[in-house]
Design brief:
Shape: globular
Largest sheet: 7 strands, mixed
Distance between the termini: 32 Å
Number of helices: 7
Strand order of the largest sheet: 4-5-6-9-14-15-16
Order of helices and strands: EEEEEEHEHEHHEEEEEEEHEHH
Radius of gyration: 19 Å
Number of strands: 16
Amino acid sequence: MHRIITFVAGTVLGGGVIYAVSRTGKQPTAVPAPMQFERRAVPGDNTDNEFLKHGYPGPVSDFMLRSRYAASYNRALRNPNWVAEHLTRDNLKGTADRANSEFKEDKDIPPMFRALLKDYYRSGFDRGHMCPAADAKKDAESMNDTFFLSNIAPQVGKGFNRNYWASLETFVRDLTKSFDDVYCISGPLYLPEKQGDKWFVNYEVIGDPPNVAVPTHFFKVILAKRNNEPAFAIGAFALPNKEIDDSTPLTSFSLPIESIEKAAGLTFFDKVERKVGVVAPLCSKVQCTLEHDAWKKKKRNPK
C-alpha cells in the first residue's frame, strides 16, 4: 500500500518524530527523525552586501490583510501558503450571501505570478476556499474577500471540498460554541509518495499553459481559548486532497502541530508556549467528530 510521508522534526515530549500518513486515513506511525536546528531569519530584500548588490531574488511571499483573514501567497505554486482566521460567536454573525459573490483574480498579485480564472476552467477541480465563505457573513465586503483566488486552491470536489472538507469547516465554526476565541490557520501541503523503493512529490498543475499547482493535502491548525480557563486548546489536522468517506473519523487525520510545521515549512502560534498547563489537546476538550448530515441536507452549489 502506498503511503504519504510528512517529513517532520517535532519536539513533542522532547523527541523528534516523522509521521507516515496513510492514504486510507489510518492513525500515523511514528519513525525516527533528524534533529531540529535553530531557525534563521531570511534577510528579506537586504542588498547591503556584494552578492545582492543588484537585487534580492526572493522568494517573496505576498502578505494580505483582509476583513476576515490574513494570508500569505506562494508565487511559484499560485496558492496560499496559509490563511489565518479569528472566529468568535459574534464575528460569525451576518446575512451576506455567497450567491452574490464571484470568484476573481487578485490584482494585488503581480500578473506573472497570479492565479487566473481560466486556470480552473474545465480543470476537474473545485475552487476550494481556505477562509470559507461561511465564515464571512458579516457584510458583502467580507464575503467578497473570500473569493479572491489568492484565498483559493484546487480541491477535489465530490467527497472532499463539497463534503468532508466542508464538514471540517463547520466543525471549526462550531468550536465557537465551546470557546470564546478560535484561531484557525489553513493551507496546502505537497507531500511525497512512495513508488517502489523511492519517494516522489507528484502533483498536477492546472491551466493552459500550466499555472496553478494542485496540493496533495490540506491542513487546518486550530488554537482555541475559553475566557475562564488559563490553558489553550490546540489541534492540527492534515487531509489528503481526494474523496474521503464520511465514515472516516476526523481523529484519523490528527497530527502533532510540529508535524505540519515541518511539512509546510511554517511555524504556528509560536507566541504560545507548548507545555502542560499552557496548552492541551483540542480533542481532549471537545469531541472531534464531524456532522456530515448538515451538508447532506443542503444542496451546496459546486465551486
